[in-house]
Amino acid sequence: MSSRPDSTVVDRQSGSALSANADDAAAMLVGAVKRYGSGRSAVVALDDVTIAFPAGKFTAVMGPSGSGKSTMMHCAAGLDQLTSGRAFVGNTDLSALDDRELTRLRRERIGFVFQAFNLVATLTAEENICLPMTLSGRRPSVAALDQVVSLLRLGDRMHHRPTELSGGQQQRVAVARALVARPQVVFADEPTGNLDTRSGQEILGFLRSAVDLHHQSIVMVTHDPNAAAWADHVVFVVDGRVHDVMDHPSADSVIDVMKGLGR
Amino acid sequence: MSQMMRSAARSVLASRGRFMLTGTAIMLSVAFLVATLVLSDSMRGRAAGDIAEALAGTDAVVQGVVLGEPGGGPGDPERSVRRSLDPDITERVATVDGVDGAASQWVGFAKLVVDGSSVGTGTASDVGRNWVADPALNPFRLASGRPPTEVGEIVIDRSLAGDAGLAPGDVVQVLTTTGMYDATVTGVATFASADAAPLQRTVLLPDKAVSAWLDTAAPTEVLVGVAEGADRAEVLGRLSALTDAEVIDGPDHIRTMQDAATSPLQFLTVFLLAFAVVAVLIGVTIIFNTFALTVARRRRESGLLRAIGAERRQLLGGVVIEAALVGTIATLVGLVCGVAGVGALRWLVGLAGITLLTGPSIVSTTSIAVAAAVGISATVLAAWIPARRAAATPPIEALRESAAEPRVVSPARTASGLVLAAVAIAGGAVAVARSSATWALLVVAIVPALVLCGPAIVTAAARGSAQVARRAAGVCGSIAAGNLAASPRRSASTALALMLGTAMVTMFAIFASSLTSAVGTDVREGLQADLVVTSATADFPTIDPTLAGRIAALPDVDEVAALSIAEGIVAGKAEAIGGIDPTALPTTFDLDPIAGDLADLSDGGVAVVGDDPTLLGGTLAIEFERSTLEAPIVAVVARSTGGFEAPLYFVDRATLDASVGRLLDALLFVDLADGAVADAEEDVRALVRATPGSFFETRAEHVANSGSEIAAFRNFIDGMLLLASFIALLGVANTTALAINERSGELGLLRAVGATRRELRRIVRLEVALLSFVAASIGIAVAVGFGWALIDVTGGAEIPSVVVPWSRLAVTLVVAVAAGVVAAAWPAFRVSRVPVLELAGRDR
């Protein structure tokens, strides 16, 4: 397994704090290029991106539709293959892993929250939460399970099927599933996209407390400035490149930057 | 893994409807398979058990030396043809050291006649045999009455007694090869504990009556009992020193008799098994389709599982467990239904005129195990490819909108399909050109070729028919054709089951019509007589030999030509040999001589059926039971007398009688005088009616009936095909319902923009009708081409020409399309019931 490069990773455009402490990164992309198709019809979704997502922090990724923010997350999480460049989770170079090793990595060191809830319809809430661990033949510790259940206030919903839960409750189950194994990093793809404002705020609150209380690393793709405001840092992506990085965002400051993107 | 198990179980439960349909396909296949196995076990087991019990007391049997071995085809003998024994054989056997009992057994033809009509119909043969006095050696046991002692006394088997309502003391008649005799029933007997010997009706005579009634001096066999304390092997060794005889060990004899009794059933079993295999194949296609669609619909869920860390192996396992669950439940239900349904199958088989043995069903663990293994493993195997597809889902799929199947048909797939099709066609062509069955094996390549080319064919057909469909049904037609082309792979695999079904129907239709025509052609072209008298069964001549003379004595009858048939061995193969009057026959039936003169038969010559005039002048050796005939070939004829058992050689009637003993007539050809009044025909009819064992037919009736044995067979085949087609249609309904589910968004959109429910139903029906039409036409086209080649190559002398029943095939096509539309009715109804918004918004 190749180790992490020694060179200091620098975001060429901003030189932000995000890249300065690369040694503490939960996940990282180095010279990442993702091209779809070939020849003239090729579309470059990621154009030589180098970025590190700091450990124990809540990072939001923003950008207009088609900017490549989702592709960026997918590649960082090992869901999609880079055309060139490298992706790291912790010290592990994803490009060196085969499908089996990638799968293991996903279920042991990464958690996912998707926009469309994505629960397995035939399993109860509790079984859905435990699924990544049962897949690897483990059982979550009672303490860990209790912790996420109380954090997400799911106590009375554990034996319900997804269809018996509201959208907000379903997404809480999905968040619990992502958190229960205490993964190195959680990737959330528009986790509030399908929710009403109140449920969305609730979910963001849970993510925030997971970072604050348990030093969980979270990377969240969103295009809602209010959601981005819950993060520690915001990465702005435009045309497949990192355009800007903002620390301690507020909804207003995020909106200002988005306006500046001119789209 | 238990998590996957639970998840699989719940996902089966969650989609009960879909799996009910899939399950039904498997259930029916398994039920059919197990019913076939149980049926054949029961028939064979019963027959075998009875024979073993009846012959238990017989330590050895002495029979004549074998002349010819049994053949496999229609008309071939079912047991060895043997040389007659010497009349004094029984005395010689009895003097052998260690032999305790030796009993002569004469076996011949005897038919029970009550009030002028014969008793019993169907495939069982009428047997006359002597009552063996030694109870240890007699396979029959008296149930009531006493043994026959004087000429004119008989014992009948209990099944005959039941059929005719006879009891000891009743007066009856017995028809044998030497004439009709009055007889008194003195007793009723059972074969071991069964009502009758397997597939036989038996009349038991006293030894005294045998030489006159059965016309045999020498016994057919000698039943031997070994003295207690004697070494059986040694006694057998001493017996084998007897000249002109063969000694068969008791257990071997039992086995031979069991094989002989069950061989007609074996033919049936093979056919039933072939259908079971087709049913399973169609079931497999349906399972494959269902799982392929299920897996496609669950693409997002599979992607999610992959994203959160399920390994490929685990996803594969999940689908396979699901398949195993469905397979197991369906198989269990199928087993129960199959065992219970044996009765239904007996009824079906009975429709074909095959009378079966009564008695309880024998359900062996092997039958159950085989059917269960086939059911479960077929399901799991059929789900394997879709399961692999599910396992290969990239995790990124979880985050995408579910991608539809690619519209483009892979050119490589089509190309390899075309190559295989070319191989199959070339193989067929070479096979026909060279008359080589080996090359014909290549024809099998057409099946994978169809599987591979299916999507391309469906796409092409959909495009080709789009214009027509539009003109016929407006925009609904266009959409229906477009839907087919939109998912060529799914459409093709739906079509496959139907294609297989229609191809089967077509192949059998061609086979049956060719066979019927082959059997009928000679009669159609050669028959000149106005009237024909036929035997009660096709297998054995049963016409009273005096009848010909009595008909000839009627006024206005010009000529009566009798045909008798006996078995003889020519070049080691058992053949039917016809005995004719060489002057009378040609005026009633034109054998179409191409060389020589039939009149020379009366000098002891032989006529050969064939198309090679150079055979004339050669010598032919025919071995009969009693003697060997060496005769010059004096004529070559192009035609035989027709029917299933048509002779391939003709000799003078007197020559045949001298070689095998007296025979009954198989057929009488009656020619009326020119200008004879209708009364003449009525006179003949009345006389024939009054004579048991003979049937009256006009020329037209005889021509029409000459293929009737096959008609019964065809009814049976049709029944089986109906079942196979029903399973195929289940598949169409299932796949269509699933496909509609998948397209619910699109259909909802149609409703939203103003399509009525009726139009929606119409689209679904049109789509299925189009698909059924394409599938059925291809199935028929392929089957016509390859059925023709196969019959041409393997048909030989029995099926010289191929006859394609076009009208029947047209009906098949119409029925297939209509049935497809019926199958689509339920999914069409369902889709039109769903509210607009739900359709448009349904997520999965």
Written description of the protein model:
The complex is a heterodimer of chains A (263) and B (844). By secondary structure, chain A is of the alpha/beta class. Chain A has a domain at 56-74 and 96-260: Rossmann fold (3-Layer(aba) Sandwich). Chain A has helices at residues 17-20, 69-76, 99-109, 125-135, 142-151, 167-179, 197-214, 225-228, 251-260; strands at residues 25-36, 43-54, 58-62, 84-89, 92-93, 110-113, 185-189, 218-221, 233-238, 241-247. In chain A, the strands form two sheets. A six-stranded mixed β-sheet of chain A has the order 6-7-8-3-9-10, with helices on both faces. In chain A, helix 4 (125-135) runs parallel beside helix 6 (167-179) and helix 6 runs parallel beside helix 7 (197-214). The longest helix of chain A has 18 residues, at 197-214. Chain A is globular and about 50 Å long. Residues 1-21 of chain A have low confidence and may be disordered. Chain B is α+β, with helices and mostly antiparallel strands and 844 residues long. Chain B has four domains: 1-58 and 249-403, no CATH class; 59-248, no CATH class; 458-525 and 705-844, no CATH class; 537-692, no CATH class. Chain B has 24 helices and 25 strands. In chain B, the strands form four sheets. In chain B, strands 5, 6, 7, 8, 9, 10, 11, 12 and 13 form a nine-stranded mixed β-sheet that branches. In chain B, a hairpin with a 4-residue loop joins strand 21 (619-623) and strand 22. In chain B, helix 14 crosses helix 22 (757-794). The two termini of chain B are 26 Å apart. Residues 72-77 and 839-844 of chain B have low confidence and may be disordered.
Task: For this entry, give a set of tags.
heterodimer, A: alpha/beta, Rossmann fold, six-stranded mixed β-sheet, globular, B: alpha+beta, 4 domains, nine-stranded mixed β-sheet, six-stranded mixed barrel, 25 strands, 55% helix, disordered C terminus
